[in-house]
Structures are given as C-alpha cells and as structure tokens.
Specification:
There is one protein chain. The chain has 5 helices and 4 strands. It is mainly alpha-helical and 145 residues long. It has a domain of 32 residues. Strands 1-2 form a two-stranded antiparallel ribbon. It has a two-stranded parallel sheet with strand order 3-4.
Length: 145
Amino acid sequence: MAKSPSLKDETCSMNNCYNKANSGCIYCKKTFCKEHGEPILVMSPRDVWNLSGLKISDPIKYKKYVADWNRKDGHPCPRYTHVWNAQHDEELKKSLQIIKFSSKRASRQPSINTYREAKRRKITQIVGLVIILIAIVILVLYIFH
C-alpha cells in the first residue's frame, strides 16, 4: 500500500469503518485504514458454487480463495482479483508447458525396458543364426563323411 499525501481528512472506504485512511490500494485506488489496506480476492456466486471443483482442479487457487474468504482484515478488491487470477493462470500455463516439454523429451529417449527388449531381439536373432549355421555344418559333415 502506497501512502498518499491527500489522505489528511479522508476516512476508510470500507463500509461501516470510520477510521482515518492512511493508505491507498494500488489496484482499486481507494483509501483505507491500516486494518483494511490489504486487498483480498472477491468471489462471485458462481465462484462459490464452483469452489468444490476448484479444490480438485486448482488446489493453489482454492487455498487462496478460502484463505481470503476467511480473512477479517483487508478489503474485497475486484481489480486485485483480476490481476491475481491472470498472474496465477500464467504461472500455471508455464508449469504445464514445462511438464509437457519434459514428458515429450522423456518419451523421445528410449526407456531402459525398450533398450533391453531391443537387445533381447538381437540376441535371439544371433542365436537363431548360430543354430542354423550349426545345422548346416552338421548336414555338410553328414553328407561328406
């Protein structure tokens, strides 16, 4: 919260709070007292209904919303909510891209099992060729003996 020089006679913008304002919100630009200075996330009725689904799909966002919902200090700030959600979604998108990249990279590299299977196939082919050669040698020895 940034101090504003024009706060001399202003009161807190929070409903039913008549304390002297000593800070301004950098998001909504309203003035607040020390108790209500910090912005908190705003929840629409749709967000409340989707909260249980959010617990599974995005646990970090769920925890933040629940923590802000239970706070007694701060002020609900729609602009802060918009900025926080945009930043969180961007971080989540980057994390998912990193996970996708690493899984693609891992799938390009042959696993140990794939390597072992290829090695088994080669050994089986070589053993098969050796058996055929031994059979030919025995056959040649039998014919010319």
